[in-house]
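Look over this today:
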Amino acid sequence: MKKLQIARIGYNVISAIFFFAALLCLLFPRTSPFAVCLFGGVLLVAYGIIKIVGYFSEDLFCLAFRYDFAFGLLLLAAGGLLLVRYQTAAEYLVTGFGWLLLLDGFFRIQTSQKAKTFGLEQWGAISAVAIAVGVIGFRLILSFGGTELPRIWIILAFLTEGILNRCVVRFTVKPPGTYPVFPQNQT
């Protein structure tokens, strides 16, 4: 129970940080690569830890956190690389972020399909946002220039990833005792 609460709070905090990152990106477009790598590294490490805690929580349906252990380890590794090798990593930051978003979008599409089989009405919203995250991630992978376009896509990426995390936790993780009771087969 306690791990589930920590995971829920952690996902909500990470969502808020993604929204805040979008605002920072909008207000400070000329941030140094070192500061971006430092912020990104810390964010990815924290996000990885929250995903791993979520994986080990006692979620009844195991929907929200089903794929979070491996993805959490990947985020920890990516965050560590950003913090240790920031000079080299800066030139791959947008593309790397795109790959992480694409992968998260794929996992969350699977989550939405499982939510559909459980009868959760909001599966379509999760699926739509997950597809948007995947499309934006794919667009970031294709960004190879220093134009204004990637910055707009990065802002959209932060916003949609924050919305996706918020939707997944809100719609698929319920406190114990609030799940619907499924009728038993009576023969």
Q: What stands out?
A: Residues 13 and 166 are 9 Å apart (CA to CA). The radius of gyration is 17 Å. Confidence is low (pLDDT under 50) at residues 181-187.
